[in-house]
Each structure stands twice: as C-alpha cells, then as structure tokens.
Write a structure and sequence with these properties.
This protein is an alpha/beta fold. Helix content is 39%, strand content 14%. The longest helix has 21 residues, at 19-39.
C-alpha cells in the first residue's frame, strides 16, 4: 500500500495524566518516526496547542506539527461534538488513543483502543467516563476505522464487540524504555520518606482500578510472616478517586523521573501489581526488565511463568502470593530468570516495526 500522507494524533501526551497510554505513545513513536518519515512523503503530527510547562512533548519525534486552536480538554471535546472542527484532508489518520477526529476526509483511519475495561469493570469508572468511552467506541466502530490494541486478549474483546477480525491489529509494547537508573536520587527519595529497610513497590496511576486498598490490606496481613517491616513505596500520579489515604507503612512518593523509577525497581524486593483489569499492564514488564520479581493479577503482561498470579478480589490470595515470593528463594530466582527472558523478547524496536507495517499495509 502506497501512502502519500499520514496524520498522527498523539494527543495523550498533552493529557494532564498521560499514564501508561502516554508511555506507549511516546515510545512507539520514537521507534517508528524514522521509518515512517522516510517512507511517507507527507507526514505531520496533529493535536491540541501545548499549554503545559517545558517543551511540547510533540517536538520529540522530529515530525512537523499542526496545532488545533485550543488546549487538550477543549480540542478533545470538540472532536466529539463537531466533526468539522478537525478536517484531515486525505491520506491516513493514525490516532494513538480513542480521542481524535473521526469524521474527516481521511482515506483510512486507525485508532488505538487499549482495552474495554469500561465494560469489564464499570464500577471503577465514573459515569461520565463510561459514557465517553462507550460513545467513542461506537463512533470509531461506525466510521469503519481500523484499530490497534496491545494484546490478543484485547483483540478478542474488540472482535466480540463487533469489529471485523481484519480491522484489529495487535501492536504490543516493549520493555526497554527506562533509562540508566539514578540511584543517588532514589536513595535520597527513600531517605526523605524514612524508608531504611527492604521495601515493596507499587507502580501506576492512582485510581480505583489499581485496587490499592486490597493490596495494602494484603501487605498488612503478610507482614507478620515476612520477618521485617517491608514498607510500601507507591509511585505514580493521582488519577481519580480515593487512593486509600494515609496508612502506616505506606509511602506515596508521587510521580518520579524514569531514571528514579528504574532505580526503585532495582532497589525494591518485590513489585505488587494487582489491578482489577488491564489491557496489558506495563509496570510488571518494567520490573521484569530490572530483575525484580512480580506478584500480579492475571493480565496480558503476566502469566504463571513470569509472575506469581493472584486473585485481585481476594486479599488472602494477594497476601499468600507476597509471602510465597519473599520467603522462597527458589521462587524468587525463577521469577527473576523467566522475567528477564520475557522482557528481552519485547522491544520497542519490534513494536515500532510492527506499527509501521500496520500503517503502511505491509502486514495485517
């Protein structure tokens, strides 16, 4: 397939809380930008006007930018209610989220739908959030757009939701995006937080889907069997909803740099990641790449080979998983070994190549 024009919409990078979608957007465009630019005559990034601090994240990819007149919230709203607001003349439109102009003059449109969590666990979404996701899903489907998603599980969900099999493309994430660890700043952060013993790590945007209360209850239950204090360091920005407030032995450090995050992965004793639902789950893969064992829900990035799998709705199950890993050296060694092998198989270079193949039609 010959493409003369490509419009890329990486709008999640302008969101107040980019989260895992932002990581995926940034890393896959870093990998795919060069090949796309060299193979497509006209290529542009299109999105809201940057109003945040620092440099516009869109500048990182070396692709010309066309800005809509409005910030992230304004532009995404108008993409929903006024199709003529964002005209895309010809070529292929690639949006790396569910947001983006749908009614356009594009010859072909591709949207990223990471999962259908709003259907699987509607109770952890606001009513407004559920309505928005359902509306966007219907708009994308009715437009005849193609979809990229992160896992075979999500692809099956989308096909069951009514997409044709040939409309859905799996482009999985990589694991090799975290830069060299900043151990000095990580140690400062731990000292400032009065963490002076081996600790457990929880990573992710803080929202109800991440299941923090059950995780913290499980850790409290496990501590008497662990032979140590094992405080919990929680890394990630506030999303929405109650993050379970203050609790003894739980330290919220907020968002940290990628270098500090990598250092914390390498300093921690265990990653506990037990969300109620995920379309993929990037933190377990990041932990595996840092040789950190993982206790996790059964999600696309984990299985019994690379993680100790627990029931996210069962505090006893989570607690038993933590105790099993921290008190059994052979289990820890196996998880570290198998996790490193798994993470080495998933690279952003491969993910970028896969995205280029989908966009250019070289591979279905």
């Amino acid at each position: 397939m010959t493409i003369s024009k490509l419009t890329i919409v990486p709008e999640q990078l302008h969101s107040a809380v980019p989260g895992g979608i932002g990581v995926y957007t940034r890393e896959i465009l870093k990998s795919a930008a060069g090949p796309l630019t060299s193979s497509i005559r006209s290529i542009e990034i299109y999105g809201s006007t940057w109003t945040g601090s620092g440099d516009d994240p869109f500048l990182e990819f070396g692709i010309p930018i066309r800005s809509a007149k409005g910030n992230n919230r304004y532009v995404t709203r108008w993409w929903d209610i006024a199709p003529s607001f964002a005209k895309v003349d010809g070529g292929t439109l690639l949006s790396l989220s569910m947001a983006g102009p749908i009614s356009s003059n594009a010859e072909r449109s591709i949207f990223a739908i990471y999962d259908l969590a709003f259907r699987h666990v509607p109770e952890v979404f606001t009513s407004r959030g559920r309505r928005w996701h359902e509306k966007r899903l219907g708009m994308i489907q009715r437009s005849g757009s193609e979809v990229i998603t992160l896992s075979d599980e999500s692809a099956t969900d989308l096909i069951d939701a009514g997409f044709n099999k040939d409309q859905v493309h799996v482009v999985s994430p990589g694991s090799d995006h975290l830069p060299y660890p900043d151990f000095e700043r990580a140690e400062q952060l731990l000292a400032e937080s009065d963490v002076r013993t081996p600790f457990l790590l929880v990573v992710g945007t803080l929202e109800p889907r991440k299941n923090l209360k059950r995780i913290f209850d499980a850790i409290d239950q496990a501590r008497p069997l662990l032979g140590g204090e094992f405080p919990v360091v929680v890394v990630g920005p506030d999303g929405w909803g109650n993050k379970d407030g203050e609790r003894k032995g739980v330290i919220f450090v907020g968002k940290v740099t990628d270098r500090v995050l990598n250092a914390l992965y390498q300093r921690a004793s265990l990653l506990v990641y037990a969300p109620l639902f995920e379309g993929f789950g990037l933190p377990p893969l990041e932990a595996m790449a840092a040789a950190l064992p993982v206790v996790a829900s059964k999600i696309p990035s984990t299985d019994e080979q690379v993680a100790t799998i627990v029931d996210p709705y069962d505090v006893d199950s989570i607690s038993d998983g933590i105790v099993k890993v921290l008190t059994n050296e052979s289990t820890r060694s196996r998880l570290v070994r198998e996790g490193l092998l798994r993470s080495n198989e998933l690279t952003w270079r491969y993910s970028g190549q896969r995205l280029v193949e989908v966009v250019t039609g070289l591979r279905k």
